[in-house]
């Protein structure tokens, strides 16, 4: 298999399909496009999500916190605690480990999330530091939002700009190569996008407003997340390519490496579906979160379309494959 997330057909067949024990307390279970689970405790639910960081270098500690907290936020829930597992290759220095943990604690503190446990070890099983984080949140059980709730007629909203995380990772890890191409100011701006990777504010706001589904955009980018929302909800989706906001520096970096910004890892961005899309966009922007309506949910459950009037094209959105970031790393 190629580097990246396991393809969805294999995931369903040999991972999710092998689960054979089900308890009544579990009210949200694994599925394509569903990043969280939830366990019922009386009128409350404990919402949980776990994720590793494998494809980032300089900012791994920051990213590790954001990706799990963002998953919790995609359920409309504020994250409250995070557990961190750190696997270090033989030869890792104390300074490297300390710098990593400083990133974790600083980022968690910014989100008002407590580091509540984890595990740390040095092992010959890895050749670089691997982090895995598990985040938990608490909410009234009837307020937890699933990725499966999109309804025909819902607006499809994108927060911030496509390729946000991938831009920051590439700019940080390939700084020397990109310096002469971008220039110092543009490169520094691209690196600074690492500070915009939380979707906790928009997730909590959208949950209270009445979003029908939410999905933070990780591997596979905007188009991958759009496909997964439709797949999880059993609907179709039409995305207007011309409406998807992309930072100029993201376009330049993607052009340089020959990759698509619409298939590039995009933590910091969220896809939200909502009946009153315009109302939600106004609320988000009032709270300093850029938001754009980029499409609509349809009732044709096998139809996932990307259209562009500017280009005169209508193409099918494929299931997400390996993220564009891996092409750069290779």
Automatic annotation (TrEMBL):
What region holds the PurM-like C-terminal domain? Answer: 151-305
One short Pfam name that applies is AIRS
What family does the entry list? Belongs to the HypE family.
The family database entries (SUPFAM superfamilies) matched by this protein are listed as: PurM C-terminal domain-like, PurM N-terminal domain-like
Q: Which PANTHER family match?
A: HYDROGENASE EXPRESSION_FORMATION PROTEIN HYPE, HYDROGENASE ISOENZYMES FORMATION PROTEIN HYPE
> Single Gene Ontology BP term?
protein maturation
Q: Where is the PurM-like N-terminal domain?
A: 33-138
Protein known as = AIR synthase related protein domain protein
Q: Which organism is it from?
A: Ruminiclostridium papyrosolvens DSM 2782
């Amino acid at each position: 298999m190629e580097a990246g997330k396991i393809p969805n057909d294999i995931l369903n067949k040999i991972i999710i399909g092998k689960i054979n024990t089900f308890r009544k307390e579990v009210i949200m279970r694994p599925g394509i496009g569903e990043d969280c689970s939830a366990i019922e405790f009386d009128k409350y639910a404990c919402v949980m999500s776990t994720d590793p960081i494998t494809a980032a270098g300089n900012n791994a500690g920051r990213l590790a916190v954001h990706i799990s907290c963002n998953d919790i936020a995609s359920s409309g829930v504020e994250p409250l605690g995070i557990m961190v597992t750190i696997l270090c290759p033989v030869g890792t220095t104390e300074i490297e480990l300390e710098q990593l943990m400083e990133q974790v604690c600083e980022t968690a503190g910014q989100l008002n999330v407590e580091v509540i446990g984890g595990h740390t070890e040095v092992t010959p099983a890895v050749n670089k530091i691997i982090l895995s984080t598990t985040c938990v949140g608490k909410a009234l059980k009837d307020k937890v939002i699933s990725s499966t709730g999109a309804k025909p007629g819902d607006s499809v909203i994108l927060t911030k700009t496509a390729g946000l995380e991938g831009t920051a990772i590439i700019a940080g890890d390939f700084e020397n190569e990109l310096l002469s191409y971008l220039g110092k100011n543009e490169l520094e701006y691209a690196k600074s996008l690492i500070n915009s990777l939380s979707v906790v504010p928009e997730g909590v706001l959208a949950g209270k407003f009445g979003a029908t589904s939410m999905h933070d955009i990780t591997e596979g980018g905007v188009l991958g997340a759009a496909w997964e929302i439709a797949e999880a909800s059993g609907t179709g989706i039409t995305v207007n390519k011309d409406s998807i906001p992309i930072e100029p520096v993201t376009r330049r970096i993607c052009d340089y490496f020959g990759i698509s910004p619409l298939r590039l890892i995009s933590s910091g961005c969220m896809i939200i579906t909502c009946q009153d899309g315009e109302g939600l966009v106004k609320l988000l922007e009032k709270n300093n979160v850029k938001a754009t309506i980029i499409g609509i949910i349809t009732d044709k459950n096998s139809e996932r379309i990307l259209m562009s009037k500017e280009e005169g094209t209508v193409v099918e959105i494929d299931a997400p494959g390996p993220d564009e970031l891996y092409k750069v790393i290779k």
